[in-house]
């Protein structure tokens, strides 16, 4: 992890740190009246938390807890950690709230709009069972936003009121104010104050990054959806669903999901 540190005449200090994680670049800005080593220690805690969540929910890492579930949950129920169980429960709830346009089973074999219902959760035992073969759970459209929500109480614990956490420019959390003004000014004239900004979409006309779970077809074209939410988790859910759904559905889903399109 690399970092820069500076102090100002009003007693506040700024730590800017950056490193690679979750297949992207992570940028952290922390503002507090604290010495360099103390602020650097907080940044290291954040890095460790991101690594922990990768180990939990990165389906592309064969050693992750989620990858184990993908391999074994059809053959027999898998006991999972309370956190992973909670995540999967939230994702099933999100499927319902987005009218099926956020679906963590989208990359399963022979996927249909009903595949999510073959993901069976048993609350009493924290077990996960697949009712048909070929199911693959993928948290790529969820985990970065959830990570921001996990980082927020860490900052509160250290009394950090002003901070910016940027996960690859697609999931951003801004708390308090930047050094030179109210809120945090981002691209396209967007200013965040105790909010998250999430972006989903294709950065080239040829890219097919998001699949519409209701049709099974990729969403074509160079376009993006940005949403502002109070929680990072729901930001990722909202941006993914709004990008995948038909244009005429967006006003109703935006209202239902309590997000803002800037």
- Low-confidence stretches are none
The biggest beta sheet is recorded as: 7 strands, antiparallel
Number of helical elements:
6
Structural class: alpha+beta
Which of globular, elongated, flat, extended, rod-shaped describes the shape?
Answer: globular
Provide the β-strand percentage band: 15-25%
Task: Briefly characterize the structure.
The chain has 262 residues and is of the alpha+beta class. 31% of the residues lie in helices and 24% in strands.
Explained architecture:
There is one protein chain. By secondary structure, the chain is α+β, with helices and mostly antiparallel strands. It is 31% helix and 24% strand. It is built from six helices and twelve strands. The two termini are 32 Å apart.
From the structure above, extract its key features.
262 residues, globular, alpha+beta, 31% helix, 24% strand
Could you outline the blueprint of secondary structure elements for this entry?
Elements: E1 2-7, E2 13-21, E3 24-32, H1 36-57, H2 65-72, E4 78-79, H3 82-97, E5 119-122, E6 127-130, H4 143-157, E7 162-167, E8 171-175, E9 184-185, E10 191-192, E11 195-202, E12 223-229, H5 232-244, H6 250-257
Antiparallel strand pairs: 1-2, 2-3, 3-7, 4-6, 5-6, 7-8, 8-11, 9-10, 11-12
